[in-house]
TrEMBL record:
Pfam families: Trm112p (PF03966)
Superkingdom of origin organism: Bacteria
Chain segments annotated as transmembrane: none
Family affiliation: Belongs to the UPF0434 family.
Native organism: Lentzea pudingi
Protein name: UPF0434 protein GCM10011609_19880
Length: 66
């Protein structure tokens, strides 16, 4: 199921990483996943019951390159 958040909310949400980059819906491998992915660090944050969990401890780290 794809994440359904209001566009205004998505515009103000940001990753808690030092860059505070915007988030995009889904993951790089699954755009329909119930996650929000940071456009800077690549961490994916779960969306549970329609609520984004923007905690670094809950994030899924991006796969290592190389």
């Amino acid at each position: 199921m794809a994440v359904k958040l209001e566009e205004q909310l998505l515009e103000i949400l940001a990753c808690p990483c030092p860059e505070h980059a915007p988030l995009q819906v889904g993951t790089p491998s699954d755009p329909e996943a119930d996650f929000l992915t940071c456009t800077a660090c690549g961490r994916s944050f779960p969306v549970r019951d329609g609520i984004p969990v923007l905690l670094l401890d809950e994030a899924v780290e991006p796969p290592s390159a190389g």
